[in-house]
Amino acid sequence: MDKHVIKQNSYTNPIDDLTFLDHLIFNFKLLFFIISTIPLISISFFLGNFVKPIQNYLSILFHKLLLWLLSVKVETEGHIDRAKDCNLFVSNHISYLDVPILGSNFPLRFVAKSEVASWNLFGFLAKLARTIFIKRNRHDTISQINKIKKALLLKEQVLIFPEGTTSDGNRVLGFKSSLLSAVEKEDFLIQPITLLYSEINGIPVNRWLRPVIAWYGDMELQPHLSTLVSLRPIKVRLIFSDPVNSKLFSNRKDLNNFLEKIIKTNYNSVLSK
């Protein structure tokens, strides 16, 4: 086969097997990550509930270290400077990687389904990060709403994924408005964030590559994570839109539709380029 063709195919395929050097570098990074995060987790476990600044700082640092390990580069656009004044954030949801990407910018309390709490290491880390676990059924709706509202009233910054699940990355799913009952007719500032995976190994992410990063449906975690580790570097864009006050909307469904339109418009505009 022509050498030029081999080189071209190698360049256009971002999921090539890693070289020995790549594996060596990753193993060194993994060792450093483990050595660094063990004390972080220990301090957070024993002191986090008593000293809130420690909990917040360690959470951000842990997420940054995880992104460094996986060679994920995050680019922010828009009104991130307004984020410090916001109470609630909403974002589209594509992968488990979304959490460290969003959590690496400032301290956030994520809202997740209650099943996550039982996911071995992931569940332990989620609890340590003070994730708000909710049951997605009508019988517990009021209880779930109160959990979120309580955190917001305590001036904590909360992030929800209104899609309720992850997508394949080729579209933003319809938003569910139930969790927005926590801010309905309240004086809370909400900021929409659009999350897009834009490049893998310097190759623009297209509709065939997005599902490689996306974790959705019945995908098993371990094989997906093994593939994800080989996708380096991964470039992500976070678009921070203008915040909006929840009291300006007559009900949660109007607010939900407004936020959904913003994120879908941002996402689709990038996909169309």
Description of the molecule:
This protein has a single domain, classed as 3-Layer(aba) Sandwich (Glycerol-3-phosphate (1)-acyltransferase). Strands 1, 2, 3, 4, 5, 6, 7, 8 and 9 form a 9-stranded mixed beta sheet that branches. The chain has 9 helices and 9 strands. The chain is globular. The chain has helices at 3-12, 20-47, 52-69, 98-103, 120-128, 141-153, 210-213, 221-229, 252-271; strands spanning 72-78, 88-91, 109-113, 132-134, 158-160, 189-200, 203-204, 234-240, 244-245. It has 273 residues and is α/β, with parallel strands linked by helices. α2 packs antiparallel against α3 (52-69).
Fill in the keyword field for this structure.
Glycerol-3-phosphate (1)-acyltransferase; 16% strand; single chain; 9 helices; disordered N terminus
Topology, element by element:
Layout: H1 3-12, H2 20-47, H3 52-69, E1 72-78, E2 88-91, H4 98-103, E3 109-113, H5 120-128, E4 132-134, H6 141-153, E5 158-160, E6 189-200, E7 203-204, H7 210-213, H8 221-229, E8 234-240, E9 244-245, H9 252-271
Parallel strand pairs: 1-8, 2-5, 2-6, 3-4, 3-5
Antiparallel strand pairs: 6-7, 6-8, 6-9
Helix pairs in contact: 2-3
